[in-house]
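Worked Example 4.2. Consider the chain below.
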Amino acid sequence: MPQALGTVVTDRAYDTNAVVAAVAACEATPVIPFRTLCKLPRHHAPQPVRRPQHRNKAERFFGHLKEARGFTTRYEKTASSFLALAHLLAALDWMR
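Applying the procedure from the previous section yields the following structure tokens:
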């Protein structure tokens, strides 16, 4: 990444060691809730109050994106066309 990230907010699906290591390599703080079947949860400092609110916004945003059938099933064959669809859906969600 060209610039350092402050915090990476995701949902439970991204609670893997590989994702946490990639976020740590970018010198960012992961805000990822633990999976319910996690045997050894990560130990970290308590999170500020506002971060779960941002996580909720991110989860609702991806929920809106998944309403589009083409985005959910990923009909686009190239990464650039899929990214263009993601940008289009994000703009439509922002205008909503």
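The mean pLDDT is 76. The two ends are 30 Å apart (CA to CA). Compare this with Example 4.1 before moving on.
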